[in-house]
Amino acid sequence: MLKRIPWKENAVLSFRLSDDLFTLAQMRTNSLMEFFDVFRSSPDWAGTDLNKAPILFCAFAAENRFKSMVDQILPAGVVIPNARPVIRRMLSPIIESGGRYGADLVELDDSYESVKAQLIQGNLDAIKDRQIIHEHELTSMIGSPEKLRKRLLRWVETGVNWDDAKSFLFKDIPLPPPAGNR
Q: Which of 26, 77, 89, 144 is the most exposed place for a label (fewest CB within 10 A)?
């Protein structure tokens, strides 16, 4: 296990999800990390081009919390890092006293800070705005290795890409349908 994971923009990490399942993530900017629909039974990543790999999600991540899952930080040149623009539209959680929960659709500014994000659509509705909720990530930080592992394994096993925190914010919202290629 790694002692520390230094944040380095565009560094690519190999994640061990189980003894025979690995995936890749790339550090982008301001603690945003992209996770890709690239899974292998062994951590042999030579020649992988992340520009061609579908992005499962891009979220703020507490990288040092994932030390138990990170198999290795890949040396430069092993993988071609993703150079596509970083995803800026995200869901900003609403948690208010009195039990009001939900989220706003926001767009991160050039500093990629959620506190400076521009409001795109406020107070999303779980029924009317279901597609927006399904397609965008929360601005909150992913910090639990087990929740991350569960999410990635759910994708591999069912084709459903879902952050369970959205179910907390939007009571009774159904999970998105499985991806067609699964």
A: 77
**How far lies 41's CA from each of 21, 59, 71, 182, in Å?**
5, 25, 13, 17
**How many whole angstroms separate alpha carbon 89 and alpha carbon 131?**
13
Residues 92 and 120: beta-carbon distance below 8 Å:
no
Q: How confident is the model at residue 21 (pLDDT cuts 50, 70, 90)?
A: very high
Q: What angle do CA 123, 102, 145 make, to 5 degrees?
A: 140
As a whole-number percent, the residues of the chain with pLDDT over 70 amount to 98
What was the pLDDT predicted at 2?
77
| DSSP letter string, 14-43 | EEEEETTEEEEEEE-STTEEEEEEEEESS-
**Tokens coding 140:** 């909150």
Dihedrals φ, ψ of 65, to 5°? -75, -15
Distances (CA, A) of 135 to 16, 76, 127, 145: 25, 31, 14, 22
Contact call for residues 39 and 22 (beta carbons, < 8 A): yes
What global pTM score does this model have? 0.94
Pairwise CA distance, residues 182 & 177, whole Å: 11
